[in-house]
Amino acid sequence: MAKNESSVGLLLASPPADLELNQWLHRELRAAILDRRLKPGARLPSTRQLARQYQISRGTVTTAFEQLRDEGYLEGQIGSGTYVAKDIPDGLLQARGMAGISKRTAHSRATLSSRGERISSTSLAIKPVTHAGRAFRAYHPALDVFPLHLWSRMVARRSRQSSRILLAGGEPAGYRPLREALAGYLGSMRGVKCSQEQVVIVSGIQQALDIVARLVLDPGDAVWMENPGYIGASAALRAAGGEMVPIPVDKNGLNVRTGVNSCPQARLAYVTPAHQFPLGVVLSLERRLALLNWANEARAWIFEDDYDSEYRYSGRPFPALQGLDQSGSVIYAGSFNKMLFPSLRLGYLVLPPRLVEPFVAARSIVDRYPPVLDQAVVCDFMVEGYFGQHIRRMREIYAERRLALIDAARSELQGLLRVDDLPAGLHTNGWFECGISDRQATAAASAAEIEVMSLSSFGVGRRVPNGLMLGFATVNPAATKAAVTRLAKVLENLKRNL
Ligand SMILES: Cc1ncc(COP(=O)(O)O)c(C=O)c1O
User: Fold this and answer.
1) How much is the average pLDDT of 114-122?
2) Cα–Cα distance measured from residue 141 to residue 97, given in angstroms and rounded to the nearest whole number
3) Could you tell which of 124, 206, 426 is best to mutate to test the pocket of ligand 1, judged by most ligand atoms within 8 Å of the CB?
4) What tens digit of pLDDT does each residue of 149-172 get?
5) Does the C-beta of 335 come closer than 6 Å to ligand 1?
6) Å from CA of 494 to ligand 1 middle
7) CATH number for domain 148-387, candidates 1.10.150.530, 3.40.640.10, 3.30.390.50, 3.40.50.2000
């Protein structure tokens, strides 16, 4: 390698507070490769040089290099020179949306706005789904038992019988009969207090977060973020310019006192009170009241993400925080994408009265209004009683699948992973007992075609948990048991090589 092909002197943006250093380095180097600031074949500075330049440990640099090598961006051995891969597959370039763009126009000199830069550096890595359901997928409902026949009959009926007016257009706030059905459902099932005027339909909680963030945050505004917490939320809030302030979560949920002491002036707090994501704890009543009190005094907003609260397997479901709100601070969000199926892309918000008009205005700009026929089918499903039946049936199926996972894990993963028995939701967590890191474990599991997520990937600040998130909803008990056996082999192997 000629000296001038080396990339010594490479300048990277400084690490944000809410990202692990190895994740930051991985992201920056990957961006430099995809933008061709680091050309194919270029030699990277040594781990020692990079560590010194950015005052980080060599271990951090090595972890980032190894991940980039596993992903095909880098070649060569650490210690004997690391180079940018000569042939970066098209699939990798697609990650930046560059595929199919001619070389001549790909490097336009026109630039992104600072908002555009922020958005493109915080996107979620959504990969194409190649299996309808695999063991341990933590964020999907059971599609193998979804009542597809009934659903297709209802879709066909709507398409056949819809009045022409339904084909002509919709309202930005959503299909009125669905909003009315939701107001009734949320009042009786979740203790939400609202009129149907406060209910708006969105494509999911993700869109709700994006629009709300744009309405209530200015760049630089502080946001309380649960730590660990949902990456989709921090990405949307960061993309709007929010500065994440990680607030620890303990057995009573978000530690409100820490938030009040460390950042009383925050503009927004993101919380999952019914079932904290990913730890699964419930926000205690005392903390709920303290949170509402702070929001009222600080004139801040609370985003309540009630993503899968319908699924609780013991005890009574805790009603929504929104039902306790006297000052109009809580923005409540729920999703059909977890209760029915992910590609449906329909969810809902219950807005404080002050936010209804601004939200409807924003929605009209984003895409005018949500797709009307899909909303009408969901409305029929609710009004004709199938939705309630579906939730009850799924709760039974999930209870059985949850037990199967916990039983198998407790007998086969002893000494490797200590598995919680979270009483709600679609996943439980396992904590390493033997010095394995969750990143190592997810990489090794993925090589053995086992889908698990590391809990550390949900860490917002420097302190990150070390464990695995294990979904139990997507496959039946027999498949779960077989997958636990395979996971045990992978972890045993890692433990032996520690
Ligand atoms: C905690 C949490 N909130 C929100 C969402 C996203 O919901 P939606 O699919 O409705 O956008 C997810 C998705 O997995 C989630 O885990």
Assistant:
1) 90
2) 29
3) 206
4) 999 999 999 988 877 888 899 999
5) yes
6) 31
7) 3.40.640.10
